[in-house]
Predict the 3D structure of the following.
Amino acid sequence: MNNFKLLGGIKIALLFIFMVFAANFYAQNKFGIIIHGGAGTINKENMSPEKEEAYKSKLGEALLTGYQVLENGGSSLDAVEAAIKIMEDSPLFNAGRGAVFTAEGTIELDVSIMDGKTLSAGAAAGLKHVKNPILLARKIMENSPHVMLMGEGAEKFAEEQNLEIVDQEYFFTKERWDALQRVKENEKKSKEKHGTVGAVALDKNGNIAAGTSTGGMTNKQWGRVGDSPIIGAGTYADNNTCGVSGTGHGEYFIRLGIAKDVSALMEYKNYNLQQAAEEVINKLTRLGGTGGIIALDKNGNIAMPFNTSGMYRAYYISGSEPVIKIYKE
Amino acid sequence: MNNFKLLGGIKIALLFIFMVFAANFYAQNKFGIIIHGGAGTINKENMSPEKEEAYKSKLGEALLTGYQVLENGGSSLDAVEAAIKIMEDSPLFNAGRGAVFTAEGTIELDVSIMDGKTLSAGAAAGLKHVKNPILLARKIMENSPHVMLMGEGAEKFAEEQNLEIVDQEYFFTKERWDALQRVKENEKKSKEKHGTVGAVALDKNGNIAAGTSTGGMTNKQWGRVGDSPIIGAGTYADNNTCGVSGTGHGEYFIRLGIAKDVSALMEYKNYNLQQAAEEVINKLTRLGGTGGIIALDKNGNIAMPFNTSGMYRAYYISGSEPVIKIYKE
């Protein structure tokens, strides 16, 4: 064998090693995002084609915006924040602008975000004037020694962090106001209490983040706090397992610790993501609660079980096409 | 063998079966209570004999009061409530009267309770005028459709439930005020932030309940909410596994979902109570947090690990003597 042949052989071997490495690298570095815009009584017969189109369009915008952050090498935290901000800004969802009203006719927002790399988290409850709660959750996580702030104190911190402060009027939508009047009239709360938004993302570095933002429950009283700002209930992320964001009857989500339970079932019982996600929704059903979750694991697998008639949801994982869904299938 | 001998044999056999059944019944129906008055930098050299005696005496009073509820056939919820109320009323602990001050010089109390039989729970954050937060947590659980209330809304509900409302002055103690000044001067927060109280009880019917009550962290800002009112973080109870109450650096307890993690390790990994409790405190240590937990399982086993120099703690399980401890052993 002469030196040229030897060199050629080495080159081919190196190329082969590189290809295996690249394939492996690619497989290990799937990235993507999954979002929800709330679960509840969402039936095709009650939905006009225009309304359905509006929801799909806004979900798509949030999804693509988050995905582009990841594609450009951005962090999962940035992707979650970007996707949720778009849904907060849209009056279609029960978060930020377009949030539901309390019994007193005010709007009180709850929010949380979690970083699966460090298990750091930020959350706030009872916000009345912070335009984008998800931005505040991130600031609490990164610029305060605390995880959770509430009410006026939280808003004072938001001001110190130079976040945009708005009047309550900013959040007002006629549709939610009418919903409050309907609920007050006939106490048909169950139809009106969902609509939370959330996102879970996995970035190119394998970091998972999750976030959830909501106006809570129509006609809520006494400073009610739901699951959305509760780390472990409405939101959880751990790079070793998965990220989760929930939407539904928050009291049940708190009692069952829904979001972290998905992670615990994966870590302690070796369930895969789908098994774990379905198991917690089964627990929710058994306890009498309604709602759904979105979940994304470290390998880019997704799950999005719910026990209501519909859940606004979408996902976009690298290597496959984006998917947007509303009804049960 | 004549009939008399046969009857005698049957009698002895029946007596034996009855004794086995009774012993088994007794073993299955252990009852008892475990309480804590906070974990932190608690060293014998810094503690006067009088102060030590005062703590032990008050812990003993809370313990015996809770135990008597159980002995008289009362529920674990009643026992937890009674024990915590005594510690809230005592200025020795950072809960109710004697709670620590916020940066603004106010007192803001957090609380939760959980029923392991139904997984029902009640919690409140940011209370300024409710004399006994633990009574409010119970009312929220039993008389509202919600799990968690905050701030003025929670206090409005407390008034509607005819709970005793007090001025902020009621909670004031000179010791805590001086602590705030010390912390503001030298930012030595770590020494001052513990002192939460909690209790877990198992009643004669096998029902487990857990509760936690606190003033939070000295010099806390911006409406900070700790782990004590967070179901799954500071408090958890499930008849199938155990009840848990935590005390320590709340942010870490929230991020790790400490209280429910003990239950999850027992349910999903078949850990016994001691293994599960120690594992979560190991996680706390690895993440850089300090504190401790008390835990009681459905068979009357107890665990009370902590990674600080001391934790005020006591337990009294049927069939054995009451135990009160302060320092590490």
